[in-house]
Fold this protein.
Amino acid sequence: MNLSLSDKLNHILESISSLYAEGWLAVLFIALIIIELFLTSKKKLVLGVVALIGLAINFLFIQKTGTGNEAPFMLGLLAIHKSSLFFKYLFNFSGMVVILMMMLSGNNKQEDFKNYGEFYSLFIAIILGLNLMAMANNLLMVYLSIELVSITSYVLTVFKFDKKGAEGGIKYLLFGAISSGVMLYGMSLLYGFSGSLVFSEIASGLAHIPTIPVIIALGMTLGGLFFKISAAPFHIWTPDVYEAAPTPLVAFFSVAPKAAGIAVLLTFIQGFENFVQEEKGIIYLLGFVAGLSILIGNFSAIWQKSAKRMLAYSSIAHSGFLLLAIIPLSASGYSGLYFYLGIYVFMNFAAFVFIQFFEETSGNDSIEKMKGTGLSFPVIGILVVTIMIALTGLPITAGFTAKLFIFSALWEAYQNSGEGFMLTLFIFGLFNTLIALFYYLKIPFFMFFRPNENQQFSIQPVQTALLVVLTLPLIFFFFKPDVLTGFLNTLLF
Amino acid sequence: MIPIEHFLYISGALFCIGLTVVLVKKNAIVVLMGIELMLNAANLNLVAFSQYDAQLIQGQMFSLFVIVIAAAEAAVGLAIILKVYHFFQSADLDDIKELKG
């Protein structure tokens, strides 16, 4: 693509029409910093409302830019993939929920932020980075957007400015930087093998290279992505960061960067489809990582006393299930993946919303402290039971439907290919769903079957309303999964 | 012209030294230095491979971006280490063990 300078400039100007949503987020980022300068009081409320309205408007921009073709723009750096639109909606929605959680956290003794301006604007920067991750079409863009998300996340992890926050931040930073170093080395090798940074050209360039070096380079590159989705060998930072960071942000970390990591992984795998179909090495690697994540996540979660650490390990196990959905490399696997992500947003946010409000009034998030809460607050109790059943993946919640789609895709792949590997993963995943029952139901158990001792918990009606809004879809989509699948189909195909 | 293998030997060695430093050393600042070595090994690769690229410049551009990001990462890292030192009176990673479960 050797264009003249004026051609390139024209191309870039044309590309801007596909970047309205990202441009708007950049404007919002700066606007929040400037507005904060003029505020003396009520910073949390005013800035929160501005950020909320900004993100709501961003939905329109996403819709407007999303309907283009799949041709790469910005000189091949970005492209609107089939799935980009879905992921952008997901990031934007989770961003709005996080800002609502921030605004509803009242009379908070532990989380006393002085710097709401910085918090909200850095948060918008994360969403911008995630959007770029979902559109990346080039190794440079993948690296840049992952670093934009990561570095901002390191800063926000420390935002409580206490001892735990500093420790969580340094652990996150060191693990993150190491894994991005490894990823970068893998990318440089891929560039050397193929002479290009664009996904499609790399895939064709790799055709006449011996497989073992390619698998090493691809494995190193995928390592950085596994870190972002906290899959097994790269998961060590997850519980510590989840315990240290502000709760609304933890809820966001457990959903959005994970979805973005999956988005990049999908572009990777789909770009290398022919290579992956021929050489099963990458699929075996993914299967191994998925199995290990599910195993480690589930078994470590059983022993946790803190609810946040438990959900951290549970989110590691969920990454494993998300990877399971990619392994069949089939259309049904991918649609199962999108469905799972859509449901995962609701159930994880609902769980964290409950933990946040519990933590605020009772001082910490230990599961044993939840004794008797369900008896004195029956509505909250029933909601929490629903959320936990959904996280386990049992019927009358959409968590079951989501797992069903993934497992049926795996089974279908086994029937078509007859590979024992798929069957092993299938059985392994089913058994682990049983193990998950033990720790998820620990919370409802303490809430309903243990007597109430000097209960301090209280919850405002607005907070209950947020919890209800997040929980109802879990039941609704179980009875009407076709509403969500229909919506996904209009977005994706 | 220096053959490409020589660049690869050096970058491979740099990467391994960086990784060893990261895994063996206990001081957070030294670990950050190890990470810089890993990133620069990748930079060396990118620039060396760039001469075989049809567009000649992609790898060099990539390494420029990496240098800028490494600087940003080091700045954030040092700020966090300062905070850690304030709370723990130490930058030794073995002393930082408040969080566990």
Summary: The helical segments of chain B are 4-24, 28-50, 58-88.
